[in-house]
Design goal:
The protein is built from nine helices and eight strands. With 258 residues, it is of the alpha/beta class. It has an eight-stranded parallel beta barrel with strand order 1-2-3-4-5-6-7-8, surrounded by six helices. Helix 3 packs parallel to helix 4, helix 6 packs across helix 7 and helix 8 runs parallel beside helix 9. It binds (6S)-5,6,7,8-tetrahydrofolate.
C-alpha cells in the first residue's frame, strides 16, 4: 500500500504557523520525520483561508523537496494554488485533487498530462458529496472517461470515495466500503483507490483505534493508498500486518521489524 503522510498540513497549528513564518527548518525537520516514520509520499496542504495560497504552496514544495526525493501530493482545492505547486515540483507528483466538476477536470487533467502526474479523483461535484455508494461510482466513471479524453490513462488515477467523520454520519463508513467495492468493477485492471483516513475520527475520542480499525476494513476491500498519520506506530503496524495477510509482503516471524 502507498502510505502518504498527512502531517505537512496547515490545518495543524504548528505547521500553519511555520508556513506563515516561512520557517524552513521546522518544515524540513517535520518532513524528514515523516520519511523516517515510513512515508512513501508526502501530502502538502497550506491550510484553508489564506490569501497567499499560491506563494505559500510554491514555498512549501521547494522547501520540502530540498530534503526528500519522495513523491509530493499537492493538496488544495484552489486551481491557482495547485498550479503554483505543480510548477515548483521536481519530485514525482500527485495532484490532490480533482472532483467530477467539469471546470476542475478541464483545468487539472491537461496539467497532469503535461507534468506526468498521478491524479486523486474525489467523488463529489458542485452539488457536494453523494450520500450513497452508487452515485460515488457514477462520478468515478465520469472522471475516468474525462481523464482518458485528456490522454490521462486510468492507471494514473486514484479514486477517493471521501471518508466522512463518523461523528457526523454513522452510516458513511459502510457506504465508503461499498463504494470501494464498486470502484473495482469500473475498469480492468481495477482502478487504484485512496482515502484520507483520519477524516473518519474527526472530533471523536479513540481516534487512533477508529483510524486503524477502519484501515483494516478498507485494506480488506482492496484499498491501494492512504493519507495517514505515519507517526501513529499502531496504525503503521496494521498496514504491515494487512500487507502480510494479503500476501503482498512475504511472511516472516519478525515481520514488524523486517
Ligand atoms: N482525501 C484526500 N485528501 C485529503 C483528505 C481526503 N486531504 C486532507 C485530509 N482529507 C487528510 N488529511 C488530514 C489531516 C489532518 C486531519 C485529518 C485529515 C485531522 N487533523 C486534526 C483535526 O482536524 O482535528 C488537527 C488537530 C490538530 O491541530 O492537531 O484530523 O479525505 N484526497
Amino acid at each position: 500500500m502507498l502510505v502518504i503522510s498527512e502531517r505537512l498540513n496547515g490545518l495543524f497549528t504548528a505547521v500553519g504557523q511555520a508556513i506563515d513564518a516561512r520557517d524552513e527548518r521546522f518544515i524540513q525537520q517535520h518532513a524528514v520525520q515523516q520519511v523516517e516514520c515510513g512515508a512513501h509520499a508526502l501530502d502538502l496542504n497550506v491550510g484553508p483561508g489564506r490569501d497567499d495560497g499560491p506563494a505559500a504552496m510554491e514555498w512549501l514544495v521547494r522547501t520540502v523537496q530540498e530534503v526528500t526525493d519522495l513523491p509530493l501530493c499537492i493538496d488544495t482545492p484552489g486551481i491557482k494554488t495547485m498550479t503554483a505547486g505543480i510548477k515548483a515540483c521536481r519530485n514525482k507528483l500527485i495532484i490532490n485533487s480533482t472532483t467530477a466538476e467539469m471546470k476542475k477536470m478541464q483545468a487539472l487533467f491537461p496539467l497532469a498530462r503535461e507534468h506526468d502526474a498521478d491524479v486523486i479523483c474525489l467523488t463529489m461535484d458542485e452539488r457536494g458529496i453523494p450520500n450513497d455508494a452508487e452515485s460515488r461510482a457514477e462520478m468515478a466513471m465520469l472522471m475516468i472517461t474525462t481523464a482518458m479524453e485528456h490522454d490521462v490513462m486510468p492507471e494514473r488515477l486514484m479514486l477517493d470515495p471521501l471518508v466522512m467523520p463518523i461523528k457526523a454520519a454513522q452510516d458513511q463508513p459502510v457506504k465508503v466500503i461499498k463504494a470501494m467495492q464498486l470502484f473495482q468493477t469500473l475498469n480492468d485492471p481495477s482502478p487504484r483507490t485512496v482515502v484520507g483516513l483520519s477524516n473518519v475520527s474527526n472530533g471523536a475520542k479513540e481516534r487512533s483505534l477508529l483510524n486503524r480499525t477502519f484501515l483494516g476494513m478498507l485494506m480488506g476491500v482492496g484499498l491501494s493508498a492512504a493519507i495517514v498519520d505515519v507517526q501513529d506506530a499502531d496504525l503503521m503496524n496494521v498496514i504491515k500486518a494487512g500487507e502480510l495477510l494479503k500476501a503482498e509482503k512475504l511472511y516472516c516471524d519478525d515481520f514488524l521489524r523486517a
